[in-house]
Design brief:
This protein is mainly α. It has one domain. It has 2 helices and no strands.
Length: 70
């Protein structure tokens, strides 16, 4: 099925289903875009976290119990 066939099929749907289709399509585009941005950010910071011990100093206590003082 090519793009024109797909558009013709979409035009045959009731308006509510067409709007739902648009909303879901936009959600998937935004989700993919967000993931790509996070992937780029993670890759750009990977070497910093791998080589700078100050950035990961507190990971040694990640599994210790935390008690908030009041």
């Amino acid at each position: 099925m090519n793009a024109n066939d797909l558009l013709k099929e979409i035009e045959r749907l009731p308006i509510k289903k067409r709007l739902l289709l648009i909303e879901k399509t936009l959600q998937t585009i935004r989700k993919k875009e967000d993931f790509d941005e996070m992937q780029i950010a993670a890759e750009s910071l990977y070497s910093d976290y791998k080589n700078d011990q100050e950035l990961t100093a507190f990971t040694n206590i990640d599994f210790e119990n935390f008690y908030e003082t009041r």
